[in-house]
Amino acid sequence: LVGTAPRYDYGVSVTDSTSSNHQPQAVLVTGGNRGIGLAIARSFADAGHDVVITHRSGQPPEGLRGVVCDVTDSESVDRAFTQAEELLGRPVQVLVANAGITKDGLLMRMSDEDFDAVVDTNLAGAFRCARRAVKGMIRARHGRVVLVSSVVGLLGGAGQTNYAASKAGLVGLARSITRELGGRGITANVVAPGFIETEMTDQLPEDLRTKYLASIPAGRFATTEEVAGVVRWLASPEAAYVSGAVIPVDGGLGMGH
Ligand code: NDP
To answer: Which stretch is the leader sequence (predicted)?
Structure first.
């Protein structure tokens, strides 16, 4: 590869990982076409960063650049990163692995397919994206990997064995990346949202909504922007020494677990 590798301006010093202070970072958000991922992407873009989102079909949201990606397919992930790097003009410096699905069901009735599909998207998908992202990060000696988990990954959830296992797995993934690559200026962290105001929670029956709210010390659901703010902080120079951490954004629901 020597001599043929593209020359990129990483925008950071190779000797000082904190020197990216307030420089625009090259950010890729998976599943950034809607929901929490879209709020994260808009938050980075509004702060002046260079953002590309992944989407599976249709067009990217207005004002954002997008590449098509299915995180269950390694070739699709590789292609998406290559296209994102072309759009960004440099390798991805911040990966936000947000794409995720649920296929809830009681353990005794859960099919292999539903278990595998959730783990393949939520956990293996994040692994595929992180594996591709760190190539450029290692060369730059700078990178931020943020994995979007869930309070359910830490507390468990009846009817969510597949989802909880996939989200708990992200903790081991982030901590192992931290151990492998912490010395190369790369951090890897997990954000664990609780209940978030989304289309899904909007449609909750009133009695269920009241029950959930009673279990949250903050007494309300979070906005998607509140999750985005924490993700953005983890990618900021101020968080350069935070790695292998699990940051809850759950109004106290998980009490720090
Ligand atoms: P949405 O269902 O609104 O969006 C999920 C996103 O993931 C979509 O962009 C979807 O793309 C994408 N996606 C799904 N499967 C794949 C795949 N195989 N390849 C690429 N992209 C895929 O979810 P939310 O915004 O609610 O959640 C975002 C993340 O936050 C998820 O990881 C979720 O588990 C987590 N979370 C959500 C909470 C909540 O209350 N909503 C609470 C805690 C965690 P497409 O549009 O093509 O389907």
So the answer is: none
- The whole-angstrom separation of Cα 213 and Cα 253 is 10
The alpha carbon of residue 79 and the mean position of all alpha carbons in its chain are separated, in whole angstroms, by: 19
**DSSP state letter for 36:** H
Q: Is 22 helix (H, G, I), strand (E, B) or coil?
A: coil
3-state secondary structure of 192: strand
Rounded to the nearest angstrom, the distance between the alpha carbon of 1 and the centre of ligand 1 is 36
Helix axes 125-140, 161-181, angle to 10 degrees: 20
**Pairwise CA distance, residues 246 & 154, whole Å:** 10
Torsion of CA 244, 93, 71, 231, to 10 degrees: 50
pLDDT digits over 23-68, tens only? 899 999 999 999 999 999 999 999 999 999 999 999 999 999 999 9
What class does CATH assign to 23-248?
alpha beta
Of ligand 1's listed atoms, the one at least distance from the Cα of 56 is 47
Instruction: Please tell me what DSSP assigns to residue 243.
Output: -
Report whether residue 123 contacts ligand 1, using a CB cutoff of 6 Å: no
- Residue 100 Cβ contacting ligand 1 at under 6 Å: yes
Query: What ipTM was predicted for this assembly?
Result: 0.99
Percent share of the chain, pLDDT over 90: 86
Mutation test residue for ligand 1: of 28, 30, 33, 34, the one with most atoms within 8 Å of CB: 34
Once rounded to an integer, what is the mean pLDDT over residues 150-157?
Answer: 96
Residues with catalytic annotation?
A: 163
